[in-house]
Structure formats: C-alpha cells, structure tokens
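Postdoc handover notes: sequence design on the structure in folder B. Input tokens:
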C-alpha cells in the first residue's frame, strides 16, 4: 500500500506539540511493516535537518491566491520519504503558526499551498492509494482532490482519511478567504465549509474525506457531543463512525534506558538512576535536594485545553502539601504569569522554565515522581504515555486519551473538572508515594506498558484496507 501523509509538523524537522511526534513515528512504523510511505510538510525557516535534503521537483507553480512558485525537497528518514515544500514568502519567517502570539494572517494561504503541494507530490512524485491528512492545516487536501482533481487519473480509486488531533483548532477565517484559496462560492454552505458565517477548513476536510479518525476512542466519542464538539458535533455525528486509534510512542526517543539527555540512565529492573535524575532536576530548578519530597513535573503547551486554571484555583492548598513542582511550558501569557507568580512566591516549591526545550522535557520526564495533566480535554496526550515509561506516575483528568491510556494500576485520575477533584487526586498520589513498595510497584507496572507504534500502525493499516475495499 502507498500512503501519502500531509501535515504541518513532524519530528525531527519541526515541532510544536504531539502532532509532530505522531508524524515522526507513525510513518516509520508503517514503513517497518513494509508499506510505502511519503510525508509532505512545509520547509519552515526553523526546520532542523539531520541530513541536508535534496531537490525533488523544481518550479512547481501553485495557483493559490497570487500564485506561488515552490520547490520540493526530499530526504529519507527510517524508510520514509519526507517532502518539504519550499516557498520562502510563506514559510521563511519567524514562527510556525504565529509570531509574538499572533497567528500569521495568511495561514489560509500557507496551508492551502501545503495541501495543494501534497496533491502535486501525488501527481508527480509518489502515487498513493491513501491520502492521509492531519488536522486543519492539511484538511484542504481532500477538498481540492474532490473539487479540482476528481477526474485526474492519479486519483482514481484513491481514498482519503482525515485524522483530527485536536478539534479546538479548526482553521477559521473570514469568508473572503474562500476565493483567495481558489474555492467556489457553492462550497460556502453549512454542510461543507461555512461555519457561522466564516470559512472553516477543518469542516471542509470532515465533509470531503472518505473517513475521519481521531487519536483515541474516548475522544472519538466525546467529539460527537456538544461538550467537546466545538460546534462540529452535528457534522461529526453525520459522518460517523469516527474511528479512534490511540497514538503510539517512539521508544527510540523516549526510554530511560537510552536517553542521551538525562543525568543517569535507568530501567524497570534497576531504578537507581532515577534518584540521580531526580536529584539533578531538583538542583536544576533550585529546589532543596530532599529526595523524599514528591516532585511533580509539567511539560506542556500553555493553552486553555491543558487545564492549568485548576492549579490556580487550588494553589494555596496544593502548596501546603510537602511537594515541589517543576514546570516547563510556553504559550498563553495568563498561564505563564500564573506559574511565574507562584514560583516567585514559593521558590522552593515551584519552578518555571518558559520556552520549548526538548532536552529539559526529557529531564523532567526522568526526574519527576509524578507527571500532572489536568486537561480540560485531551485528544490523546503523549506526555502521560512517556511518563509511564520513565516510571513517573501520571496524575490526569479522566478525559479523551488520558482516560484511555491511564488506569488505576498505573496512575491517578480525576473526573470532575474542578480544583478540588485535582487536589484529591494529588493527595491520593502523595499517600501512595509514602508507601514505598506500593509506589515502586505502580511505577514498574507503568514502565512495563507497551504503547509501541506497531500496534497503532496495524490499526491504521486495517482502516486503510477497509477504505480501499469499500
Ligand atoms: P499536545 O500535542 O496537545 O501539545 P501531547 O501530550 O500530545 O500534547 O504532546 C506534547 C509533546 O510536546 C510532548 O512530546 C511534549 O514533551 C512536548 N512539549 C510540549 N511543550 C513543550 C515544551 N515547552 N518544551 C519541550 N517539549 C514540549
Ligand atoms: C494534539 C492533541 C494531543 C495529541 C496530539 C497528537 O495536539 O492535543 O492530545 O496527543 O495532537 O495526536
């Protein structure tokens, strides 16, 4: 099977969140099963290339907006061909989606060009059976395919799958953007791309794809309800079944046995290195090196999705507990300010590092005793699955993928979206932490869980096959 993926980020090239981890890991797992896989992402200014990419196609004209001349570059990583859309006016600038907290105003053009370039790869470089697009940034691919190229022989029998990684981001633009991205006014209707008078790119993808999936079974159910559907629950119910495939983990990158970023490597059978990792993290955050005090880690985008307002609600009571909190994140300035304030009022209990810092993310996974994700909603969540492997017990809100991946044997869950429910979960965790043998057993149960990509890859292959047969 030939699978062409289109997405806006992928490790190791460009990353702002879990989407990049998925587009780095899933194609490699599909390739390891013998599938042919190609991935198309933008050539952003900040892309990191382990090996310099080679030119694959010169002077590809994309007739979107004023028209854009692009070049396609390519490289191979773990058996997967990655194509990079090189278009300096759109991608050679600071910030992948935004700069200084403001979304780039031409994002509709930038990602329309990405989707079109993806279809050009299909026409000229890699003939797919399946076009698998991810999130709103690639949601126009199935729209253009069916609206512009349906008669093109390249696409005869080709099936499209759209995976929603986060319904909170839909790519909503003013109605005028419709003609700028080359779509006809007839598509601007409530069953297709119109959404309360605006243009909604994700909605277009949901309407035009052959199938829709998301990144856990729990989230697949939730997004068909008004509470989690962000206004698209009606269309999603109409397009049901919405498939749910829990993300895998790239254990080459996320394993304490083999992590180049941590103070001392360790494993499920020899946990001694974890104490050293904790000590190093306490020192790095300027906390006293009391190894008996539970250390809670947070590594996250700061966005309302992630639920940190619950911490603000209960901060005084939480900080009465004998704990410390090592935080790494960036995003909403409200959250940044809240953590900064807590850190300056309680320097021995709360430490905050602002920014995106992958090595520090690894050191927190390894050094913390507990990992906190009080998300308001969470499509899958990867950090809690990494935590399991590092013996860092997750404390999570029971929603979406957090509920699906963590159970009572491996972590602590709370259901109500409230500060008091969060506090109770943290207190339960602290109680078990005091019982060393029970705590170690819990860590080890988590460490033995296997969320390898091969499981998810097999589920995607079954889904692709079902689409091609249907
Ligand atoms: P989301 O995709 O919603 O941000 P996930 O849990 O799926 O949430 O994935 C988050 C990924 O991004 C993880 O790999 C996590 O380590 C990483 N990450 C998030 N924020 C930061 C940060 N400030 N610095 C380094 N890594 C981060
Ligand atoms: C999104 C979601 C996160 C998920 C990730 C990868 O960013 O917020 O829950 O793990 O995509 O699918």
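Designed sequence:
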């Amino acid at each position: 099977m030939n699978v062409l993926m289109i997405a806006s980020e992928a490790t190791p090239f460009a990353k702002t969140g879990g989407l990049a981890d998925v587009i780095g890991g899933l194609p490699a797992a599909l390739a390891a099963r013998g599938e042919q896989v190609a991935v198309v992402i933008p050539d952003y200014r900040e892309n990191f290339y382990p090996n310099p990419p080679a030119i694959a196609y010169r002077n590809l004209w994309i007739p979107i907006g004023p028209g854009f001349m692009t070049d396609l570059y390519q490289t191979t990583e773990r058996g997967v061909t990655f194509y990079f859309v090189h278009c300096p006016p759109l991608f050679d600038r600071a910030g992948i989606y935004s700069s200084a907290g403001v979304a780039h105003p031409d994002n509709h053009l930038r990602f329309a060009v990405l989707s079109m370039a993806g279809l050009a790869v299909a026409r000229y470089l890699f003939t797919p059976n399946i076009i698998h697009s991810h999130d709103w940034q690639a949601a126009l691919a199935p729209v253009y395919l069916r609206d512009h190229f349906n008669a093109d022989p390249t696409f005869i029998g080709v099936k499209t799958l759209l995976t929603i990684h986060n319904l909170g981001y839909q790519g909503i633009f003013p109605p005028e953007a419709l003609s700028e991205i080359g779509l006809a006014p007839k598509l601007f209707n409530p069953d297709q791309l119109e959404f309360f008078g605006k243009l909604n790119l994700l909605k277009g993808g949901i309407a035009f794809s052959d199938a829709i999936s998301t990144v856990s079974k729990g989230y697949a159910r939730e997004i068909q309800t008004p509470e989690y559907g962000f206004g698209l629950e009606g269309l999603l119910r109409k397009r049901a079944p919405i498939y749910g495939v829990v993300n895998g983990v790239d254990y080459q990158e996320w394993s304490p046995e083999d992590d180049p970023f941590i103070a001392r490597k360790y494993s499920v059978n020899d946990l001694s290195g974890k104490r050293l990792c904790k000590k190093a993290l306490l020192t790095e955050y300027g906390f006293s090196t009391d190894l008996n005090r539970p250390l809670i880690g947070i590594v996250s985008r700061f966005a309302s999705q992630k639920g940190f307002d619950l911490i603000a609600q209960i901060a005084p009571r939480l900080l009465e507990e004998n704990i410390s909190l090592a935080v790494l994140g960036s995003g909403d300035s409200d959250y940044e300010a809240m953590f900064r304030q807590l850190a300056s009022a309680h320097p021995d209990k709360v430490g905050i590092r602002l920014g995106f810092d992958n090595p520090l993310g690894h050191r927190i996974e390894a050094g913390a005793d507990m990992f906190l994700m009080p998300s308001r909603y969470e499509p899958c969540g990867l950090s809690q699955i990494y935590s399991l492997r590092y013996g860092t017990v997750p404390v999570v809100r029971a929603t979406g993928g957090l509920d699906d991946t963590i159970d009572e044997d491996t972590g602590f869950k709370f259901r109500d979206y409230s500060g008091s429910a969060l506090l109770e979960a943290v207190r339960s965790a602290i109680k078990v932490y005091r019982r060393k043998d029970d705590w170690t057993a819990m860590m080890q149960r988590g460490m033995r869980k296997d969320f390898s990509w091969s499981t998810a890859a097999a589920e995607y292959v079954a889904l692709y096959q079902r689409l091609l047969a249907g």
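Context for whoever picks this up: The chain has two domains: 2-248+454-468, 272-450. Don't rerun without checking with the PI first.
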